[in-house]
Automatic annotation (TrEMBL):
Gene3D superfamilies: Apolipoprotein
Name the UniProt record assigns to this protein: Colicin import membrane protein
Amino acid composition bias (Low complexity), ranges on this chain: 168-179
SUPFAM superfamilies in the cross-refs: Apolipoprotein A-I
Region spans: Disordered: 149-187
Bias (Basic and acidic residues) ranges: 149-167
Organism expressing this protein natively: Mucilaginibacter antarcticus
Domain of life: Bacteria
């Protein structure tokens, strides 16, 4: 007699495990593909939303750079005007002081000439006086000249410090504005 059973043949344990693993693998692959598609769609949506924001930021950055350049230019122009004004004042003071010194020298020379004319009678007396007057006038001229140079140097130093202060202020403003412009908005 034959032992043929009418029941369907049962699969073995390893075959069942193999089928289960294949089903899991197929499900995992499908899920991974779905996740990939959703991720790509989401990335495209975010990129589309970010494009106008990027353009707006670029426009703001350009406008800020232009404003900073204009302010720096204005500060530089103002500093140059201040320096020019200070130099003009210093030059005027030097010229005035020199003119006064020249006038005093001319007066002293005129007096010395008068004394020399009168000195024909009193040569020794007048010669001594003339030497004293000439020495005093030279000393006074040197003192006046030294004062003029000192004042001119002070005016120049003041102009330099004013220009440096203006440059520092412009640099500080530029740095602050550039730092603000570099900040990225939070999406």
């Amino acid at each position: 007699m034959e032992d043929k059973s009418t029941k369907p043949e049962e699969k073995g344990f390893f075959e069942k495990v193999k089928e289960t693993l294949e089903e899991l693998w197929e499900g995992t692959k499908d899920t991974a593909e779905d996740i990939k598609d959703v991720t790509e769609d989401k990335y495209d949506d975010i990129a589309k939303k970010a494009a106008p924001v990027k353009r707006a930021i670029a426009k703001k950055l350009t406008a800020t750079k232009t404003a900073v350049n204009e302010k720096a230019s204005a500060a530089t122009t103002e500093a140059k005007a201040v320096v020019k004004d200070v130099k003009a004042k210093a030059d005027t003071k030097v010229k005035d002081t020199k003119a006064k010194a020249d006038a005093e020298i001319k007066q002293v020379k005129a007096k010395a000439a008068d004394v020399t004319k009168k000195a024909d009678a009193k040569v020794k007396d007048v010669t001594a006086k003339a030497k004293d007057v000439a020495a005093k006038s030279k000393t006074e001229a040197k003192e006046v000249k030294a004062k003029v140079e000192t004042k001119a140097k002070e005016a120049g130093d003041k102009a330099k410090s004013t220009v440096e202060a203006a440059k520092k202020a412009a640099t500080a403003k530029t740095t602050t504005t550039a730092t603000k412009a570099k900040r990225k908005p939070v999406l």
